[in-house]
Structure formats: structure tokens, C-alpha cells
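Hi F.,

I've been meaning to write this up properly since the lab meeting, where we talked about keeping a consistent format for the predictions we share between groups. The idea is simple: the sequence comes first, exactly as it goes in, then the C-alpha cells exactly as they come out, then a line or two of notes. No screenshots and no reformatting. I'm using this chain as the first example so we have something concrete to point to.
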Amino acid sequence: MQKTNDNQTGVINPGSGKKKNDFFKSIINSIKKDYAVLILSAVSFLVLAVICFFGVTKNLTIAAFSLSEYEVGMIADRNIDSDRALPATAAYPFAIGDHERIIKKGFPITDENYKKLEKMANTKEYIDYRAYADTLLYLFLLMILWVLLYSDKLLGRKPSFKELLIEIIFFIAIYAVTMIAQQFRFFAISSYHLTIAIPTAMFIFLIALLFGEKSSVYFSIIVALGVYNASGFDPVPFLFTLAIAFSATRIVRQIENRIDMVFASLAIALLNIVFMLVLKILFNDTFDNIGIVMFALAVNGFVSGIFALGFITPLEQILNTASVFRLMDLSDLNNPTMRKLLLNASGTYNHSMMVATLAENACKAIGANFLVARVGAYYHDIGKMDQSEYFVENQSGHNKHDDMNPSLSVSVIRSHVKRGVEKAHQLHLPPQVIDIISEHHGNSVIAYFYGEEKKVNPDVREEDFSYNGVPPTTKESAVVMLADTVEAACRTLEKPSVSRLDKFIQMLISAKLEHHQLDNCPLTFKELTIVRESFVTILAGYYHSRIEYPDQKDPDSEEKKEEAKVPSKATSKIPSKLKAKAKRKGKKE
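Output, unedited:
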């Protein structure tokens, strides 16, 4: 059959209009969804516009070019006209006419021409709107780059409103300080003196600790480009800011305790000096007065780390972020929640400790956030504290579920996830930890009670015997789910050798894959293999065989031997032939 073009036959394709409508609907929906971020972007752009306005009025620029670019005798490479009439003053006893040509392209700049350029640049009433428009356009393009870098795909997660707000505040602070510092004589001496005033390291420390390494790297790029604009497109502050920002991000990655921030401060102070020397050599600059600059930069670096240490505690509480310091505090097992879990549900406590060990080592092996996994594993079953007797790890004898209907048992079992999330909110735990609590069972089926109910009611639905959560959405949450499943299941494994553990864990992970519990997390098959191997290593060490020493007898076997030696009164009266007959009968049964 011959195909015809709709445009040639005059037939309008109805699908094209539908696609356009869907496109506009998606844009409208995204605007509705992220309207707070759009408002934040607009407000921040207005604040930067005000800062730029005052900066431009104080800069010595003419037609968007700095006065320092011109000198007497040079050949002009452009035409510059006055946009208004300027009367004579005491400092400049000559007038400038409206739209008067000050310099002409291709002609040398005379002393009179230069004086007029200087008059235009130093007149407060003269505002270089072209330079102002160029700056606004640059900032608008920088904002677009910011949106692209902080998209879900590049960042790997959706940034919160609080994160964007803090980072915009930090950017505005650095931009404003860079622009205002140039008005002071000491910082205006050279580009190297200007770098002393820029508090890059302090803000990078805070962002890396609060929001992670990737967010800090992206912010480093944005803030360096912002400093490049605020410093009049000077390459020295730009390169220095970029180098220090990347270095501070890398240093924070190794920090685990608050005292480590002191050593990080000393490292940044040393790197400030090193980068300054490198830039001096790179731009073939003189080393006059370098001692003052190096000392001031060292103080800048050290003070930045100390200030970051002071600000991190209130910020992590206000923003409720999973910073390394907060996670270390939450992993302290002497806190009231962990002590209550130990007292009320000792079996659950021991189970959580083992899950934490498995999850932490697996996350280290795949490069995930092992601190988040460890804390999430500690708290993942805190919902069991109030009804600990209904969970098998806390039972010692009678099982309460033997006297309950399977559907009622299921409601009790799956309620611990909801209770855990509620307690986590009361404790003001970070969102990453709360997500692990809510996702560690996903929406999987509670198999035992589902099987019991199916014996009575073959038409039972799996949904009625499933958890109400969602499958894990992060690597850490998925690893905790697998560690929870593996730790509980391997307790039932007889003779847990390495090969048996490996096969059993592989079977458990495959079951999670088949039931679509790992569909929403970014774990790869290679990482799953690494996780499985990590689990096998830990559990093989935990269940390793032990030597039976002569003085360590099984008390149950000793009791049985004693009972065999001392016959009861009832059995002693039975003739030996009858005893043998009864024994043979018991064996047959």
C-alpha cells in the first residue's frame, strides 16, 4: 500500500495537536509541581540584580569595558559615544556633549580622549547600562546551568527546597563579598589580594557536609563562574576559587569526626598558599608583598574550617540533613532509643546490630553511603518496641500468633513499619533514614501467614497479606532490605557452610528481583554480586564451626544420661522383656 504525506494531501494529522497539548500540559504540571523553586529562583535573581546594579555604578567601566583597558597613545579598537551630556566639574573642568564620540575606532587615543573616558567612568550619575545588561545576561545563563546541574538525572536525586535555598544564600553571599571587596583599597591592590576576602572554603565545607560530595562539586563550578563575573572576569580569582572549592570537597570526604575539621582547616590553609604560588608562577607575576598575601590566605583557610564547624550543628538540626556528624551521633548505641529497644525487644536489637554490620560492609564495597545504611539498619525495626512479643526474635516459648487469625496476625506484623515511621518523625530523624524504615519491606508478601490463610481460603489475595510500603528507591535502602531478609532467613539454615550460605543468599536475592522489590533502586547486577559476596563473608565468619572442648559438654545431653542411669519407680517394676518389647514398638512407630 502506498503511503501518502498528510501535508501533501491537505489532511491535518490530529495526533500533532494532541502532542503539542501534552507537551504544554507537562510544562504546566512541572511548573505547578515546582512553583516554590521557580519563586525562589526569581527572588534570588532580583537580589543579584540589585547587587549588580550597585556594583556597576561603582565600577570604572565605559560601554561595558574597564577603564584599565585603555591608555594614551593606543589605537582604539571600537567606537565609544557618550549617552548623555556631562557638565564641567572642579575635578574635570570640561563638558561632554550628548552622544559625543569620545574615541574612534582605528585612531590613537589622545590625552584629551582619555580624560573624557576617565570623567565618564568616575561620574556617579553615569551608569553603564550596557555593562549592567551584560552582567544580568551572564547571571541568567548561569542560572540555567544551575538548573541543569541540579536536575534529577545529573544529581542522582531530587534536591529539596531547603537545599536549594541554602545554596542560593551561600552563592549570593560569595558573589556580594567579591563585588564589595573590590571597593576597599587593600583588596583592590591586585587580583591576589581580592582572593583573601572570598570565603569559598567555609561554604563548600558546609555544602559538602550537609548535602554530599556531588552537590558540592556542582556548587563549586557555579560559584567559581559567579566569582569570575563579580571580579570583572579576572582569571585569578576564578581559578583560585575553583581549585579551593574542589580541594575542600575532597578533604571533607575523609571526615568522620568533628575534630577532623581542625585538620581539614589546616589542610585548606596550606593549599591556599600552594595555589597562590602556582598562580603567581602561571601568570608570571612578581612576588612583591607576597608574604602578607600568603599569611592572610592561610588565616582565611583556617578560619573558614573553624566557622564551618561552628555553623554545621545548628544547620544540620534546622535542615534535618544526614550529615556525617549527625549520622555518627545517631549511631551511638547509648542513646535513649537504642537502650529502650535493647530492654523492650532484645531479639530485635541483636537482629538490628547484625543487619547494620551486613549493610555497612556491603555499602562500603559498592561505594554507597555506609553511614546512612548503618543508621537506617539500627532504626529500621524501632516500630517493634511497643509490641515486641508478637515478633519471633523476641519470643521464648509460646507464640501469640498460634491463637490468632492469620489476617489479624498480618495486621500486627505490618503495623511495625508504620509505627517505626511515626517514631522516626518524632525523633526528627533525617529523611534518608526514614525512607529506609518505610522501604525495608517494600510491598512484599508476608509469606507465612499468606500460606496459612490460603489453606483455609484458596481465593485469598496477595495484596491483603502484603506490606503497605514502597520498594526501595536508593542503594542504601535496598541493601538494608536485603540484609534484613538474609539475616533473618540464614538463622533457619542448617549447617551454614560457605557454599550453602552462598546458594541460599543467591536464592533470597533472586526472589526479591522476581517480586520486583529492586526495580526502583539504582543497584546494578554487578553491585548485587558484590553485595552477595559481602554478606557471605560476614555470615560465614559469624556461623563458623567451633571446636568442642572436653570441659564444654551439652547440658541437655548430660541430663539425658543421668535420666538413663537412674530409672524411675514406675519403669523399674517393668520386667526387662516388656521393656525390650516396648522399645521395639517405639522404634517402629
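Notes:
The chain has a mean pLDDT of 82.
The two ends are 80 Å apart (CA to CA).

If this format works for you, I'll send the rest the same way.

G.
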